[in-house]
Each structure stands twice: as C-alpha cells, then as structure tokens.
C-alpha cells in the first residue's frame, strides 16, 4: 500500500544520516510523565547499585509490567510530585553490567515472549491507541504499527539507522506477529519492503510533508483506533531493541538521537542511553551551558532536563551559532511583546496542516474548553499528543493542545475503566 | 508537564495577527484619507479613541493585558462609514459593536461575530435613511491590496473569498445579465468581503463550512441589495455579513454531523 499525504507543513530540513557520535553521558533518568496512566511502585531506593535491565519500578495495578534501568549505575535523586507520583528517578552511570535474560523459549510463543518483554522493559515501548497507555499484559491488539518513518525537522533518518541493524529489526518484527492476531503494519518511507515479508506483515509507504511520518497519521489512514478497536504502536528503534534482546538476551537501551537547533553550528547524530541528561549531550557539542534544551524537535519539543522516552530528537535553542542571518522582519517580530495565551483563531492554515479526516478547529475548541464528549465525538480517541503539536505550533492562541488532549484522554480512560 | 509559551517558536501569536492585519488595513485607511480629505480626521480620531478606551476598560476590569484589535475594528468601521454620520451616532454605534460584538464574549476568537459588522448593523438599524457613500477608485484598489496581503499570509480564507465571489456573481448574472457585473468592484463590497465577511472569527471554521458560508454571504449581498437600494451598498453588505456569521456556527454543526457520520461508517467497514 502507498499513501501520499498532501496536507502538512513543508520544512526545508532533511533527515540526518550520520556519522553517529557517542558523547559521554554521566546521568540518565526515568521520567514518570512518559507513561500516562501508570502509578509506579518503586523497587529500588536512593543509593542502590543497579545494573542495566534491572527493574526500577513496576505498575502498581499491573505489577507484571516492569520498568528497567537503561544503564548500570547508582540510584540518585528520586523526585515525587503531587500525590506522591513518581516524577524523576535519576541514575548516575557506573560500569557496564547488563542483566542477562532467558530468551531460549521467548521466540517460540506468545506467552513466553510476553513474559520476556514484560520483565525486560520492552513492554513499555508499546503505546496503545486509543489513550496512549502501556498496553495490558493480556490484551491482544487488532494490529501493531511499526513506525519506520520520521518527518520531524532534523530527525534521524530511519533508513540510515536501520541499515546496520536490519537483521535485528527483522527479528523484532517477526516477534511482534506473536502478540497480535491481526496484521503488523510496517510504515516506511520507501516502497521496497524493508525486511522480507512473513505471514501477516504488511508494508505501507508514506510520503509527504510533516506529519506524514507520525504513527497517528498512519493509523488514521489504515485502521483508525476507537473504543472498539485497539491498536498498538511502536517505534523502529524499539523494534531493533526487541530484536537485540531476543538475539543476545540483553537489553539494548541505547538510541540514536539527533541534536539540532539554533545554538548548534551543525546538527549531529548521537548514540545515548534512554533518558540521557540533555545537558551532557549538548555540552559535548556546543561547549556552552547558556542554551535552552528541549527534548523533541523544534516543532514539538518540551523543555526537559532529560531525554523523554519516545523522543528521538533534542533541540538546543538560544543564541544563533549556525551563521545564518534571519531576515529583518523576523527579527522585528521577535521584538514584539509576547502575547498571552488566548482563544483559538480558526485560520484556514490549521486545516491545511492536519492530514486527518477530523475537523481541527472544532476539536481544538472542544479540547480548550474541556468538552470531553464533543472531543470524543470529533474523534480525539484516534489521536495522541504528538499529532496535535503542529496545530499548537500554528495556532496563534499559544495553547498546548497536546497537553489539553492528554487531560481529555485521561478523563475518557477513567470513565471507560469505571 | 506543560509547555511554556516561550518554549514554542510559534508562527503566530495574537500580537502578530493584530500587527499583520493592521499592516493590511493601512493601505485602505491611507487611500480613504487621501480621497475624502480633512472631513475624515475627526471620525478617525474618535474611532481610534474608542478602539483603545473600551478594550482598556475591559482589560482593567478583568485584569488582563490590553489587546490592540479594537483599533482594527475602529479602522474598518470608519472605512465603511457613510461620511454624513454625526459623531455621536458613530460613537454610539462603534461602542455597541466593540462591547457587544467582541468584548463581552472575552476576547477576539471567543465571539462569533465581527464587532465592526455589529456596530454598522446597529447604526443602519437605529438611524435609517443614511446617505449612501460611494468611495472612489483609490479605496477600491487599496481594498484589493489589503485583501491580497491577508490572503497571502493566510489570515483570510481563499475558500471564503472564492465562495463569496461565486455567490455574488451567480445571482447578479441571473438577475441582470453581464451588465450587472459593473457594480461588483465597489469599494464597500470589497472592504466588506475582506474585513467583515472574511474575518476568520465570524466565518465558518471548517473547510466545507467556509464554502457554504461564503456562498451564503455572497447570495445574501445580492438578495438584500436587490430588495432594497442596490447590490453592493453598505446595508446589503453589512446585513449579509451579519446574517451569514450568525448562521456560521449552524453550518459548522452540520459539517461536523456529516464528518461524524462518515467516520462512523468508515469505522464499521475498515
């Protein structure tokens, strides 16, 4: 299958192909906000020594789901937020110890594979639609979507990342077939299948401007999620990690991440552990501390101390070092006083950047006023935060529609559970 | 974790929208000043004063920062105003438009009407028999430039403009043949299309709705003009804009209904 997306935002930046640097990272963190809907029960305490792959905490309501350390080291600060909710669990990197998992039986069947993924933290790399939660250990989705595309500006090129690890990717995708009775869709930028097709594997190519590469766009066009239809999504690097785990019995918690932004002379690719401290990465590249660090792309990044779980990008904003001079009217606009958050302005351009058969402005208004029922009727169950980032970028109101959507989805999920 | 406004390099914010619209409206204001001469100074100054005073009052009462789009309302209002209107009538009508068309709803974007439309409709209702203003060629050209700027930066929907053009041209052709097209490029009609009917807040907010809304507004301009004192006059444009923007939310609801049904059918089939 082939999809050419017309709507979206043309950005004049290309994917990054390499070379990949490995900056020294001193500290990583586990961020509670990466897993909406999970209440964490800690399995470690401050000062404990952990090895990579060791369980840090589990889901209180579904204790089979483990969240593991991405590096070996020492547990540092554990910060709890309101209602004693885990916000940040910091680890100081020490050594290379890596926990071994028993993988002999895992490749054969569903039950053993699930057990392995649950123990090794691989389970947490799936996200469900609707709601964007970590899936239930016993649930079987109607389809799994592997996203091997990325249209965010300055994202790492999935093809370049996959090229040296394609065998592990193949192994990972084959394993996914055990978890569902439906198809496993591999969404890719080119027409030629990435790996050799097995059984229920389907290859779908997506081209077009951002957000043509986001899983939300793919799922909407192939198999829209709803209360009746549960699908899972997973990123290509997480599938590589599953393949690596099945091959070696050890977790692969390193990701290839792109670093871009105005404060950087040249964008670069780096290989860092999950949850790496952004300032460690940036310091190596920019030799400065004076910049603003975002986890995510320039369009969708959040200010954060650590790399968020599902981001394959970080952005260093701040004073320009890339040598380009902005046109005078851009500088003039930057001098205007910043406007406060306001009402949604129904511009035609919002619809031009939203490649869904959903109505963006009514949806944005429903989310902004917290009208949960209307938002659901308009199809918000098909969406996750990332899908609305472009609208937040384009809308003059200054609202973060991603955060508003999260609030709405949380209410809907609570209602469904009750 | 929520995003701070300064984290996001946004393309637009409300200050920029106001500034860009102000830039777009300025050629029309300049042309009107040149064309009408000193007689327009007093109305302009009064309108500017009211365009700042009312938003300032509401900003103070609500303890919010002042927004400047009242100035744009004032400028559009004066541009479309017949020259013979006494200043007290202007003040009354513009105040009504600013307060009940915009400010009581909150801010720009929360209302469903254009405040200049509301003010002009109030004026035409309350003080009938106003002399019909015929602006000259320079204002017409300037209005076209304003519209082109707004279209270029995306603050005016090309769908609405095209639909209005079709909505006006179709009935005019049916009623009076090709010679009827002579009335179309009047300054009042163009300004009305660009700033009253084309205002994104007053228009429908879905693409399909924009076509219906524009066609409806264009058709009403002809219908109301034909019934009264001529197509393209101030009253026909203002009341067409008012009626169309009152109906815009209904149009959007119908579009939403169709969208929801279509998606439900697709959900059942895929």
Description:
- The complex is a heterodimer of chains A (418) and B (270).
- By secondary structure, chain A is α/β, with parallel strands linked by helices.
- Chain A folds into 3 domains: 2-6 and 16-248, no CATH class; 254-323, Ubiquitin-like (UB roll) (Roll), CATH 3.10.20.600; 356-417, no CATH class.
- Helices cover 27% and strands 21% of the residues of chain A.
- Chain A has 12 helices and 19 strands.
- Chain A has a 6-stranded mixed β-sheet, with helices on both faces.
- Chain A is globular.
- Chain B is mainly alpha-helical.
- Chain B has one domain (11-260).
- Chain B has 10 helices and no strands.
- In chain B, helix 2 packs parallel to helix 4 (87-101) and helix 7 (158-176) runs parallel beside helix 9.
- Chain B starts with 13 loop residues before the first helix and ends with a helix.
Nearest-angstrom radius of gyration of chain B? 19 Å
Count the strands of chain A? 19
Binned strand content of chain B: under 5%
Q: Give the overall shape of chain A, derived from the CA principal axes.
A: globular
Q: Which structural class fits the helix and strand makeup of chain B?
A: mainly alpha
Average pLDDT of chain A, rounded to a whole number, is 89
Oligomeric category:
heterodimer
Instruction: Determine the strand fraction of chain A and express it as a percent band.
Output: 15-25%
Strands ordered across the widest β-sheet of chain A: 1-13-12-11-14-10
Contiguous runs where pLDDT drops below 50 for at least 5 residues of chain A: none
Mean pLDDT of chain B: 88
The largest contact between protein chains, plus residue counts on each side, is:
A-B, 50 and 47 residues
Rg of chain A (C-alpha, Å):
21 Å
Supply database-style keywords.
heterodimer, A: 418 residues, Ubiquitin-like (UB roll), 3 domains, 6-stranded mixed sheet, 12 helices, 19 strands, 21% strand, B: 270 residues, mainly alpha, 10 helices
Brief summary of the model shown:
Chain A has 418 residues and is an alpha/beta fold. Chain A contains 12 helices and 19 strands.
